[in-house]
């Protein structure tokens, strides 16, 4: 296993030697500056030899929203959250879906949620008791806002979430690097509550007109609320349908919404399998296509970066001399 | 390749051999006919036989020389074998070796799987006690970064990317800052919105000095329907900020219970002073004592006092529980 030591003494990658020009189109790769105090808050195992450079003030409070339901907000929260945890950042994911929470299921933590924010507000438990620590990546914690089928006494709107964020900042073990808020669908009280403490937003959409219309409206509301840093994530993209002109391309979506791209997630059957297993996609071995795309999006989120090129369509693979023997 | 060359060469050799053979046969047949014809024509058979006796060795010699010539014209077979044997031999050996290696590794893997020490975690997984995919911390991947690793490769011209074995064409993003600003303006015109700060249930009256735009009306069946009035806001805030110690409500409940117990004890202090022989065994077998007490109740009038005490305490307990639950109901 790699340890933190590899960060203090990183080996220059052969892929980034002087002869190799880094892929400019996908993402500009910042030069690596080795330093022992480079990431003071990192206290987990390293996944990569390189690490993304954390931009912005911590904790970064990111709301993941869409307007329309079923586009992949919770899946995105789970996968981005665990990707960030694997990159060594401490994460608190808050499931703000009051009546229909699902994030615990996606993470496989459904049996470990005993207390929620409602109990914290009532004084039945402390905040640290309501946080569910993931055993796979201990720097990932889940906080559910309420139990399913229960009513939330959140008459004072998003104030409770602001208190939560403040309390997390003042924790003994230090403030988390990211607070990810999984927003419920719609633009109702749940949405208003979820966006209250957020500084930035990730807008999840699919390349179809129904979710695009909702996404545009939600973006408008977020901008009215003062959240200016909004990036979009286009989910369930099918390159074969784009090629056949049966689906809008990502560039078309961007033209309609006018938002910078955080990531493009291809349609992948592994997403359903991982949901069934309660094991987020990014932990799959070998990594699936959508999992890789989520990892890339998480990297961009850390660096407050956006995509410069997008995958448009699938091309037939060029077959080499030895292709006869392999796939 | 080598095999095909081989087959072509052999084909030519056999073709020549066939040609030679047919020549020889034709020659023989022709000569045979000539013999028959001459036998028919000439009357002196002995002469014919004599002449044939002379010509037969000649014919054989001719055929032999022809054969020799044709054999000479062919490339020697050994040379052919020598020319291509090296390559084919290497391919054959490598194929066999690869197959052998695959077989051996699969056999070794299977054996090692079987020969694991009993009682390992693998056994727990096999028995369904543990889930293999959810054990401990997942292993970190050993690649450089998500943009450049064995699974994600960008072509040298930056026009394609290969992900998980599939090649995708890349297109540059065309969105400019100006376009983003235009979209923002469009949205700000289209969506005029103020974040609601006050949540009211449908049917509630609007408090004075409140902007009606900032009120959110919540239907009664909504999960947010129970509103602020049921939780004290300051108390909730202190609860959220509490870092150590017993949570507020647990503490309050505990204190209330203790107070009630104390009150009860004060009330029953005199009654408790009477030593009850049955109560001493309470810790040992509560079920038995209860039975005993019931028996005593039934048996004698002397023990009625005790029985009434028991029933009293029972009723007390019930009332306490009721009170407690009713208090809980009152509290949100």
From TrEMBL, chain A:
Transport found in the keyword field: no
GO terms under biological process: negative regulation of cell division
Stretches that traverse the bilayer: none
GO cellular component terms listed in the entry, alphabetical order: cytoplasmic side of plasma membrane; cytosol
Source domain of life: Eukaryota
Molecular function GO labels: ATP binding; ATP hydrolysis activity
Keywords: ATP-binding, Nucleotide-binding
Record-annotated CobQ/CobB/MinD/ParA nucleotide binding domain positions: 62-280
Family: Belongs to the ParA family. MinD subfamily.
Name of the protein: CobQ/CobB/MinD/ParA nucleotide binding domain-containing protein
Organism, scientific name: Anisodus acutangulus
Lineage, broadest ranks: Eukaryota, Viridiplantae, Streptophyta, Embryophyta, Tracheophyta
From TrEMBL, chain B:
GO CC annotations on file: chloroplast inner membrane
Biased composition (Polar residues): 299-310
Location of region: Disordered: 290-332
Compositionally biased spans, kind Basic and acidic residues: 311-332
Example of a GO biological process term: chloroplast fission
Transmembrane segments: 84-109
Keywords: Membrane, Transmembrane, Transmembrane helix
Coiled-coil stretches: none
InterPro entries (UniProt xref): MCD1
PANTHER family xrefs: PROTEIN MULTIPLE CHLOROPLAST DIVISION SITE 1
Name recorded for this polypeptide: Protein MULTIPLE CHLOROPLAST DIVISION SITE 1
Record organism: Anisodus tanguticus
């Amino acid at each position: 296993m790699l340890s933190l030591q590899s960060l203090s003494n990183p080996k220059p990658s052969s892929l980034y030697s002087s002869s190799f020009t880094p892929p400019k189109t996908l993402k500009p790769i910042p030069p690596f500056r080795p330093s022992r105090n480079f990431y003071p808050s990192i206290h987990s195992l390293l996944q990569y030899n390189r690490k993304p450079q954390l931009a912005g003030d911590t904790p970064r409070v990111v709301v993941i929203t869409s307007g329309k339901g079923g586009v992949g907000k919770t899946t995105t929260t789970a996968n981005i959250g665990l990707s960030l945890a694997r990159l060594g950042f401490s994460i608190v994911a808050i499931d703000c879906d009051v009546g229909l929470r699902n994030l615990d299921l996606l993470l496989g933590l459904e049996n470990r949620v005993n207390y929620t924010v409602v109990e914290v507000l009532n004084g039945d438990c402390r905040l640290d008791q309501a946080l569910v620590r993931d055993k796979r990546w201990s720097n990932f914690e889940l906080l559910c806002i309420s139990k399913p089928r229960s009513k939330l006494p959140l008459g004072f709107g998003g104030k409770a979430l602001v208190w939560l964020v403040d309390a997390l900042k003042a924790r003994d073990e230090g403030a988390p690097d990211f607070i990810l808020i999984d927003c419920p669908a719609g633009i109702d009280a749940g949405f208003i509550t979820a966006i209250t403490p957020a500084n930035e937003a990730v807008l999840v959409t699919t390349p179809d007109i129904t979710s695009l219309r909702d996404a545009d409206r939600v973006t408008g509301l977020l901008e009215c609320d003062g959240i200016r840093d909004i990036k979009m994530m286009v989910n369930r993209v099918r390159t074969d349908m784009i090629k056949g002109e049966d689906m809008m391309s990502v560039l078309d979506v961007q033209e309609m919404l006018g938002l910078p791209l955080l990531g493009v997630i291809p349609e992948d059957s592994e997403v359903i399998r991982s949901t069934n297993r309660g094991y987020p996609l990014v932990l799959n071995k070998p990594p699936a296509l959508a999992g890789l795309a989520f990892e890339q999006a998480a990297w961009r989120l850390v660096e407050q970066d956006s995509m410069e090129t997008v995958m448009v369509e699938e091309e037939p693979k060029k077959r080499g001399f030895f292709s006869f023997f392999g796939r | 390749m080598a095999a095909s060359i081989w087959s072509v060469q052999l084909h030519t050799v056999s073709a020549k051999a066939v040609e030679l053979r047919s020549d020889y046969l034709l020659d023989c047949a022709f000569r045979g006919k000539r013999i028959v014809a001459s036998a028919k024509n000439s009357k002196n058979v002995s002469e014919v036989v004599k002449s044939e006796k002379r010509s037969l060795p000649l014919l054989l010699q001719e055929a032999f020389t022809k054969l020799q010539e044709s054999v000479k014209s062919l490339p020697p077979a050994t040379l052919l074998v020598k020319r291509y044997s090296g390559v084919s031999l290497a391919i054959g050996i490598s194929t066999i070796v690869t197959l052998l290696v695959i077989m051996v590794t699969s056999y070794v893997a299977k054996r090692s799987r079987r020969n694991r020490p009993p009682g390992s975690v693998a056994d727990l997984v096999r028995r369904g006690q543990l889930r293999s995919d959810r054990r401990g911390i997942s292993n970190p991947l050993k690649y450089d970064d998500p943009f450049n690793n064995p699974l994600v490769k960008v072509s040298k011209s930056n026009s394609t990317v290969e992900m998980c074995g599939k090649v995708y064409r890349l297109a540059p993003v065309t969105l400019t800052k100006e376009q983003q600003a235009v979209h923002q303006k469009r949205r700000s015109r289209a969506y005029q919105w103020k974040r609601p700060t006050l949540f009211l249930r449908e049917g509630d009256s609007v408090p004075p000095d409140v902007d009606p735009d900032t009120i959110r009306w919540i239907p009664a069946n909504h999960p947010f329907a129970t509103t602020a009035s049921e939780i004290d806001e300051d108390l909730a805030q202190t609860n959220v900020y509490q870092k150590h110690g017993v949570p507020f409500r647990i503490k309050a409940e505990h204190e209330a219970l203790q107070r009630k117990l104390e009150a009860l004890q004060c009330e029953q202090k005199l009654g408790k002073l009477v030593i009850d022989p049955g109560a001493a065994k309470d810790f040992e077998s509560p079920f038995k004592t209860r039975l005993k007490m019931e028996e005593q109740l039934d048996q004698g009038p002397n023990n009625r006092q005790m029985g009434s005490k028991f029933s009293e305490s029972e009723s007390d307990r019930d009332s306490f529980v009721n009170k407690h639950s009713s208090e809980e109901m009152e509290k949100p």
